[in-house]
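Standup notes, structure subgroup. Blocker cleared on the adenosine-5'-diphosphate input:
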Amino acid sequence: MYIGLLWKLRSLSQDAPATMGILASDDRFNALLDAAVDGIFVISSAGIIEVANEAVERMLGYSREELIGHNIKLLMPSPDREQHDDYLRRHLETGHTSIIGTGREVSAQKKSGEQLQIYLSVGKYEHESNVKFVGILQDLSSLKQVRENLQRAEEEIRDLVNRLAHSSRVGVMGEMAASIAHEVNQPLTAISLYAQAAARLVGDDPDADGDVVSSLQKINDQALRAGDIIHSLRTWIREQDTQREESECNALIQSVVEIVSMEARNNDVEIELDLEPKLPTIVCDPVQIQQVTLNLIKNAIDALAEQDETGSGETRKVRVSSRHSGADRIQVTVQDRGPGVAPEAKEKLFDTFFTTKAAGMGMGLAICRTIIQAHGGTLDFRDNPDGGASFYFVLPTSVAGP
Ligand code: ADP
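Run returned:
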């Protein structure tokens, strides 16, 4: 479009010094010039504005009357404003140029005094020995806005991933503490019982050493204390970082799918969303629910990655769906067409440290179930009739605090 424009300007600015503006007789050309989103102007070899379109007025806040017949340096901030006449003179004498035919990002000065970031392209043409320059201004502020929004979105995703990683560490610690508490509590109880029995036996002996009795009492106290410490550690970790808020379940799912999409692509897996619109909100710790969803999707991708690489179409899909379930529940299901859960694994799937993966930790599902139960919900799985597994959690649509 701009090539045709240049040609037209060539004939137009021939008359421009006389008319100092766009020729009213050429309505079609006026319309074309003013329809352009970008600012377009023509200046003489002395830098005097001969043509300016509506976009220039819009971008810089001057009316055409305030522009036509004035030096283009009016639209430039310092130091270009002071130096522009020299640039032009030098260019006409030596042919030296740094912008003509290339274009670059510069600042323009608005009438209000503000500066506007623009991309300026400059062309040169000659008509009857008169050199003219045509400039095209592209407003970069909306582009800048898009860039900033993109940057903000990237930062939000990074922050989310950090929070998920942190929350996952807290979850792992909680589960480890739970499992340690369970494993260690029995020997600790035994120590305490033996210490009490020994203290009784020794205490019955009139010749017994008083120090031995009090030492046995101390062993008993310390064993009980160790149990309390582990118990309170678990409670403390559980209470950390849980922030309940009203959340849109579908939005949580979508943000997780964004995070995991790269891993899916790398494994040649497609994630298909089947989200019921207008689901009621849930009151939850959004990061924890995202963590659960992330875990289930990652497990499904792992299951497909195990599968024969030649699988295609439906067999390389993970389907994530959300549904209203009953009057006041929602169900989120992650379905895959992988090998499914081995019969011998079914009973142990949600146990801490149970894994069938070479590099697995066996903590994921245990943590997920703890989180969902803490939200008043349930997490379970079923075999798909046509192969693979479906893991699903059900949450109440409104949950009181923990
Ligand atoms: P990890 O992923 O570290 O093994 P998890 O607790 O998340 O720990 O999973 C435990 C086990 O459950 C896995 O090792 C795997 O055997 C089984 N499992 C989980 N998800 C699936 C699935 N979608 N299909 C088949 N088996 C699964």
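Discussed briefly. Residues 1-25 have pLDDT under 50 and may be disordered.
Next: hand off to the docking folks.
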